[in-house]
Amino acid sequence: MGKLLIFSAPSGSGKTTIVKELMERFPRIEFSVSATSRAPRGSEVNGRDYHFVTPEEFHRLVGEGAFVEWEEVYPGTCYGTLRSEVEAIWERGNVCAFDVDVVGGIRLKGIFGDDAMSFFVMAPSPEELRRRLEGRGTDSPESIEKRLAKAAAETERAGEFDHIIVNDRLEHAVDETSRIVAPFIAGRVMLYFGSFNPVHRGHVAIAEYAIDRGLADMVVMVVSPQNPFKTPDELAPELERFEMAQRAAASSRHPWVIQASAVEMTLPRPSYTVDTLRHLAGIMPDRQFSILMGGDNAAGMTRWREADEILGRYTIYVYPRPGDDRAKFPAGVTVLDDAPQMDISSTQIRALLASGREHYRAGRFGNAANDFARARELSPWSVEAAGYLEMIDDILNYRNTDLLNP
Q1: Which distant-in-sequence residues (6+ apart) come within 8 Å of 96 by Cβ?
Q2: Domains and CATH numbers, the chain
């Protein structure tokens, strides 16, 4: 059995548009074309939007068991999910997406359980829903009133879905849905462990490279709250590091399939990779996990807890850094010789930030601005550097315009 995505909503909420946008972002998502006994509307095409059949043909298919589920949504108008459509999509190795009415969505979720993820899409307000229905120009005033009344009843069942998406702005709704869908449909997940203290463009570049090379369906930057080989006072607050990793992932070329994870913040400390792997395998047994690490970490793997278990069970990709002693890499790892090389490290950035703080505290704002600007060049997502630069800019602007404080 494959994976399924179920989208339901009151008419006019925008679920069909969201599904189409998702299909553009995730090529493995394939739309399951439902059958209906109603006539086509507007520019709808048979076989693309729906399989349009006569009421008599629809009920014949019901009798033959051709539907996974079906429903008489309006009097005399039926919709159903064809079993043959679902099976054909799975045979192609794709994820089946449903655009169905609310009752059908709840029924499909009940049939497929954890293999399905269900979404209830809604407009931000009844007034906005009315505006959208009237703007379509495909329904009579009487039909619009019926749809609004039905929408009110359907919205009461929103809590029976896995996720509720408020479609206020389409772009935001699609972004939110994409972030939820990506880990659900990813079969091959690459785990990129690190303190990310702070995250920088080199981290993102290697994650992008892994996606570009097809090494995984998704790269997850797992932010470690406490590395057993580092003292806590070396690390910035964990939530700040996680937020920076989130921003960095969102700014990547693949923001839907490169994401940050705080899973280790929910586990015992210090953070041992083997414990995290066991935890993830337990809650996501159908995923194929691999590990991405730098050459410095690979060289020290023999000191890791249960290193033999990690090396024996998981594919490990190593991106070498200039000067790495490859003879220290464990046997069996895959070395990414063509991975991007960048003369940058979190240690360098921390040193620059520390230097900038000293200049800032001493009132040498010009020097401090240069330090923080350089830090931002090395790590465009450094929230701390950006904040200090903004403060320095305010100070310098004030001093240059205030006659009493030149």
Answers
A1: 2, 3, 4, 5, 30, 32, 85, 86, 89, 90
A2: 4-183 (3.40.50.300), 187-335 (3.40.50.620), 346-401 (no CATH)
